[in-house]
Structure formats: structure tokens, C-alpha cells
């Protein structure tokens, strides 16, 4: 029996998505991170960042936390902060879906919306200015090693265990890059031949949760040497594949998960054989007010 909601973070299931592939010599396994209690892969990083900061004495119940987010990390941080009795302000672009904003507030977080014109970069700048006043503490998911270490401790070992060591390729959308950095580090230690594939939007695409950062905003935790290949996807591919996941497999997810799955399908078409694990990073119910599932 689990005594706290945070005990349910991790150990998410793998489901077979191979029916989406034309190449029958390749297996596609989808890791359903929406099964985390906060509904996304970001629960892992949020828990590790907050727990580690508490253990080091860097924060306590008198600390005013503040963090920029495009959505999922904010929801995860709001949930974890509520469990530990911490105060947190989350800063996000005003074009974020209302489901995200309401969920954060339900957990007790203060939500500040910045201009959509300046995107997540503007939210990051806003937080940086607040931290400079000395009145706030940011976990700084983009530069905090506790972000990627969460996946080194949990996501990587789960994939290695649940594929019976047969995983040959790992596919993940890249935002803060914590998921791909930590999972890559662990899987490469087990088998250096496992290929790590990052997913980015093409130059014209705007896909929530996947970023192609300007150099000055590139997450400090990102190490290009830990990614063997990058596959780009466009908005249409990401949307169509998210809808396909729901209508054909019953996997209800967001647009970035559609993008990652689209990349995994492209990858499968280039392989003679293999076992691909792709991250389905969240649930689709936080996109219902967007046009993602408008048919």
C-alpha cells in the first residue's frame, strides 16, 4: 500500500504500439507517463528536484519557490509542493491551455501568465528577474542536474528492466532535455550500442513540449554527445499521430507525444530490426480546450 501520492511516481507501463508500424521486424513500445499521479513524465523531475533541495537544506517551508513552465512541469511542481507544504509561483505564457492553469491552481500554486508573444523564453526571463531580488528560489529545471538524475534513477532502469534488456532505440521529445539526458546516461551504461534519438520540431513548427532552443536559452543540462540522432517533426505529423494513438490504440496523449511517436515510426522504417521505446509524456485531457482533437 502507498501512503503518499508521491509514492506512485514512476513505474509507468509499456504498451505495444507495433501495429502502427509497417516494418514487422521492429517492435514499438510506448512508455505511458500519463500514468504518473500528476499526469506526466515531469512528476519524476519535480519530485527529485524538490526532494533533493529539501535534503540539502536549500529550501524549507518558508521558501518562496518560483519556476517558469510551459505546463507539465508546473503541474508536477504544484502537486509535489502541495505534498511538502511548500509555496510556489508558476510562470507560463498566457496561451497555455486553461486545463493547465486550473490544475496548477487546484494544487494551491500561484499562476502568473506572461505574454504569449515572448513564449517560454519570456517566462524564463521573468523568473530570472524575480530571483535576482533575493526573495525567490528557483529550482531551474533547465540547469538543475536533479532534473536528468530523476530519469537516471527511474526511467532508464524501468525501460531496461521492462524490455528484458532488449531495448535497442530510445526516442524522446526534447524540451528541458532532462528525460533524454538521464535515460541516455543510464541505458548507455548498460549497453553502449543502444541508440538515443531526440525529437525536435522543424523550423516552422510550434509543438507544445518540444523545443528547438536559441543558443542563449539552450538548457545547461543538455549534452549533445548523449544523443545519437535527432529527428524533426512538423505540427501536422504531431497532431495526426496524437489522434492516431487515441483512435487506434486507445492511448490518449498530447501533441509532443504524437511528435515523438511520429519520429519513432520514421525511425522504424529505417531499421532492419529492433525494439524501440518511445516516451508518451502526458495525457490528452489537458489539451481538450485546444484544437488538437478537433476533427
From TrEMBL:
Q: Is the Nucleotide-binding keyword given for this protein? A: no
The PTM N6-(pyridoxal phosphate)lysine maps to 42
Q: Where along this sequence does the record place binding of pyridoxal 5'-phosphate?
A: 72, 175-179, 256
Q: Which SUPFAM superfamilies match?
A: Tryptophan synthase beta subunit-like PLP-dependent enzymes
Q: Which Pfam families is this protein grouped with? A: PALP
Q: Give the GO terms filed under biological process for this record.
A: cysteine biosynthetic process from serine
| Catalytic activity, reaction form | O-acetyl-L-serine + hydrogen sulfide = L-cysteine + acetate
EC class, as a word, reads transferase
Does the record carry Amino-acid biosynthesis as a key word? yes
Q: Which cofactor does the UniProt annotation name?
A: pyridoxal 5'-phosphate
What InterPro entries would the database entry show?
A: Cys_synth, Cys_Synth/Cystath_Beta-Synth, CysM, P-phosphate_BS, TrpB-like_PALP, TrpB-like_PALP_sf
Which keywords appear in this protein's UniProt record, sorted alphabetically?
Answer: Amino-acid biosynthesis, Cysteine biosynthesis, Pyridoxal phosphate, Transferase
User: Which residues are in the Tryptophan synthase beta chain-like PALP domain?
Assistant: 7-282
Which CDD domains does the entry mention? CBS_like
Family affiliation: Belongs to the cysteine synthase/cystathionine beta-synthase family.
Q: Can you say what this protein is called? A: Cysteine synthase
> Which source organism?
Psychroflexus salis
Amino acid at each position: 500500500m502507498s501512503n503518499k501520492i508521491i509514492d506512485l511516481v514512476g513505474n509507468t507501463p509499456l504498451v505495444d504500439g507495433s501495429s502502427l508500424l509497417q516494418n514487422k521486424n521492429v517492435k514499438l513500445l510506448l512508455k505511458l507517463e500519463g500514468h504518473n499521479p500528476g499526469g506526466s513524465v515531469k512528476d519524476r523531475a519535480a519530485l527529485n528536484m524538490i526532494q533533493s533541495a529539501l535534503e540539502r537544506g536549500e529550501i524549507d517551508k518558508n521558501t518562496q519557490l518560483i519556476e517558469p513552465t510551459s505546463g507539465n512541469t508546473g503541474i508536477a511542481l504544484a502537486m509535489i509542493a502541495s505534498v511538502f507544504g511548500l509555496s510556489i509561483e508558476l510562470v507560463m505564457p498566457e496561451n497555455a491551455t486553461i486545463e493547465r492553469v486550473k490544475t496548477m491552481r487546484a494544487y494551491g500554486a500561484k499562476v502568473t501568465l506572461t505574454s504569449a508573444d515572448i513564449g517560454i523564453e519570456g517566462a524564463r526571463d521573468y523568473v530570472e528577474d524575480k530571483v535576482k531580488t533575493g526573495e525567490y528560489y528557483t529550482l531551474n529545471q533547465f540547469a538543475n542536474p536533479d532534473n536528468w538524475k530523476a530519469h537516471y534513477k527511474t526511467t532508464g532502469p524501468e525501460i531496461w528492466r521492462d524490455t528484458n534488456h532488449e531495448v535497442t532505440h530510445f526516442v524522446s521529445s526534447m524540451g528541458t532535455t532532462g528525460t533524454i539526458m538521464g535515460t541516455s546516461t543510464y541505458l548507455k551504461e548498460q549497453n553502449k550500442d543502444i541508440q538515443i534519438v531526440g525529437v525536435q520540431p522543424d523550423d516552422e513548427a510550434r509543438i507544445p513540449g518540444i523545443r528547438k532552443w536559441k543558443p542563449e536559452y539552450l538548457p545547461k543540462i543538455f549534452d549533445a554527445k548523449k544523443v545519437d540522432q535527432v529527428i524533426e517533426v512538423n505540427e501536422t505529423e504531431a497532431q495526426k499521430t496524437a489522434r492516431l494513438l487515441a483512435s487506434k490504440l486507445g492511448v490518449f496523449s498530447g501533441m509532443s507525444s504524437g511528435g515523438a511517436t511520429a519520429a519513432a515510426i520514421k525511425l522504424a522504417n529505417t531499421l532492419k530490426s529492433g525494439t524501440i521505446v518511445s516516451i508518451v509524456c502526458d495525457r490528452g485531457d489537458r489539451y481538450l480546450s485546444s484544437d488538437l482533437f478537433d476533427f
